[in-house]
Amino acid sequence: MEKLSATLLQAVILTKNEEPNLKRVLDQLTWLERVVILDSFSTDATLEIAAAYENVVVEQRAFDTHAIQWNYGLSLVDCDWVLSLDADYVLPEDFIAETKKWVATGDKPAYDTRFKFLVFGKPLLKDNTTPRPVLFRKSKCFYYDDGHTQRLKVNGETGSYQAVILHDDRKSLSRWLSNQDGYAIKEANKLIASTGPLPMSSKIRKTKIIAPFLVFFYTLFGKGLIFNGWRGWHYTLQRTMVEIILALRIIEEEKLKKDTEL
C-alpha cells in the first residue's frame, strides 16, 4: 500500500507505558509515511512495540504539562497537516478515508471528531465523551494547558468529521486510578484559582456534593447505560469515581489554601 507523504501529513502520539494499547493504534497507521511517538520514558514494552513498525520514529522527553509536551511533539514534525492521537485510539476505515479527503481538499485549519467509548473492546450505547480536534494544519494551531488537560487553539473555523474514533483504553484499573488522581489535582487547582465566570459544569463541581450524584444518574439513566449490562455499569462507576476524586481533591486543596492564609 502506498503511504501518504510525510510532507502532507504525520501523526503524533504521546506515550507513557502504553503497552496494553499502542499496537491497536499503530496497526491503523501503516498508510502514513511517518508517525512520531513522543515517549515519557516508558518502562514497559511500549518502545519494543513501536520499534516493530518501520514508519514509526520515537523521541523521548520527560513529561511536564500536556500542552508543553504536545507542542514539543509538534516541533518534531515538518508537514502541512498533523494527526494528533492518543495511544488508546483505534481508527476505523471510514475515519482513515475521511482523513485522506480532508488532507487533499479540506478548507478548514482543523477538524474535530466524535468518539465512541469501548469497555474491554465492546462499544457502549452512549458515553460522556466530547468532540475534539484531531486533524489540523500545523501552521494554524497550537496547544495550551487547561486544568488537567490540553486544548488546541485553532486560528480559524473548525470543521467536523462524520466518522468517529474508537476510544479503547485497556490499561489496568490501578493505572487508571493513579492517572485520575493526578488529573483531579490539576483540575481542583484550576477551579479554586479561577476568578472569572465559570461554566455551569464547573460551578456544579465546585459544590463538591452535586457532581458525583448528577453524573451517576445522568450516565446510568440519562444516557441509558443501565441497558448496557455490566459494561454500562463499569463506565458509570468510572465516571462517578472521577467526580468523587475531584471533590475530595477540591476539599483538600481548599483546606490547604485556608491553612496557608492563616
Q: Helix coverage percent of residues?
A: 40-55%
Distance between the termini: 67 Å
Q: How can the largest sheet be summarized?
A: 9 strands, mixed
CATH topology of the largest domain: Spore Coat Polysaccharide Biosynthesis Protein SpsA, Chain A
Key phrases:
262 residues; two-stranded antiparallel sheet; Spore Coat Polysaccharide Biosynthesis Protein SpsA, Chain A; nine-stranded mixed sheet; single chain; alpha/beta; 2 domains; 11 strands
Detailed description of the structure:
The chain is α/β, with parallel strands linked by helices. The chain has two domains: 9-167, Spore Coat Polysaccharide Biosynthesis Protein SpsA, Chain A (Alpha-Beta Complex), CATH 3.90.550.10; 173-261. It is 42% helix and 25% strand. The chain contains eight helices and eleven strands. It has helices spanning 22-27, 46-51, 66-75, 93-105, 173-193, 200-206, 210-222, 229-261; strands at residues 9-15, 35-39, 56-60, 81-86, 89-90, 110-119, 122-123, 132-137, 141-146, 149-154, 158-167. The strands form two sheets. Strands 1, 2, 3, 4, 5, 6, 7, 8 and 11 form a nine-stranded mixed sheet that branches. Helix 2 (46-51) links the parallel strand 2 and strand 3. The model has no long low-confidence stretch (mean pLDDT 94).
Write the layout of secondary structure elements.
Elements: E1 9-15, H1 22-27, E2 35-39, H2 46-51, E3 56-60, H3 66-75, E4 81-86, E5 89-90, H4 93-105, E6 110-119, E7 122-123, E8 132-137, E9 141-146, E10 149-154, E11 158-167, H5 173-193, H6 200-206, H7 210-222, H8 229-261
Parallel strand pairs: 1-2, 1-4, 2-3, 6-11
Antiparallel strand pairs: 4-8, 5-11, 6-7, 6-8, 9-10
Helix pairs in contact: 5-8, 7-8
